[in-house]
């Protein structure tokens, strides 16, 4: 995804969330946090731990990299959030998008693209110099 596409997508997600009632936003926030605990990104709060039952009920939505880090996906997150909240998929996808931007910054995609280009150039230079 290009940086401009990401920013457009983020703007749309913010509009969707702005149209959702505060009560439903609270439900979205809880479902998102539950996914983060389910996937192992966050530790669950004592007394609100659904991890064991969620992992039994939704094993197809839980994936890990070879190094053991959780592999998150917008699609799996939305599937999980819909299942536990009963709210529309469009809202869940929008919530995930906005939460990602809040955590990683709106420039995340642009910075990733710059980092990849920088790595590519370093490799080209090293190859040209025979390193």
N-to-C SSE string, H for helix and E for strand? HHHHHH
The gyration radius over C-alpha positions equals 18 Å
Straight-line N-to-C gap = 32 Å
Could you report the average pLDDT, rounded to the nearest whole number? 85
Profile the largest sheet.
none
| Proportion of residues in helical segments | 55-70%
Low-confidence regions: none
Q: What class would the helix/strand composition place it in? A: mainly alpha
Number of helices: 6
Query: What portion of the residues fall into strands of 2 or more residues?
Result: under 5%
The 3D shape can be described as flat
Assembly state (oligomeric): single chain
DSSP strand tally: 0
Could you explain how this protein is built, in words?
This protein has 131 residues and is mainly α. 69% of the residues lie in helices and 0% in strands. The model has no long low-confidence stretch (mean pLDDT 85).
Topology:
Blueprint: H1 3-18, H2 22-39, H3 51-57, H4 74-85, H5 89-104, H6 108-128
Helix pairs in contact: 1-5, 2-3, 2-4, 2-5, 4-5
Features:
0% strand; mainly alpha; 6 helices; 69% helix; flat; single chain; 131 residues
Summarize the structure.
The protein is mostly helical.
């Amino acid at each position: 995804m290009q940086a401009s596409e990401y920013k457009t997508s983020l703007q749309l997600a913010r509009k969707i969330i702005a149209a959702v009632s505060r009560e439903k936003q609270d439900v979205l926030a809880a479902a998102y946090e539950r996914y983060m605990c389910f996937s192992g990104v966050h530790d669950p709060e004592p007394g609100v731990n659904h991890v064991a039952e969620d992992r039994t009920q939704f094993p197809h939505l839980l994936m890990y990299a070879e190094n053991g880090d959780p592999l998150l996906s917008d699609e799996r997150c939305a599937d999980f959030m819909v299942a536990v909240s009963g709210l529309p998929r469009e809202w869940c996808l929008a919530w995930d998008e906005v939460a990602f931007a809040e955590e990683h910054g709106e420039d995340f995609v642009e910075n990733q693209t710059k980092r990849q280009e920088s790595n590519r150039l370093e490799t080209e230079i090293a190859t040209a110099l025979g390193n």
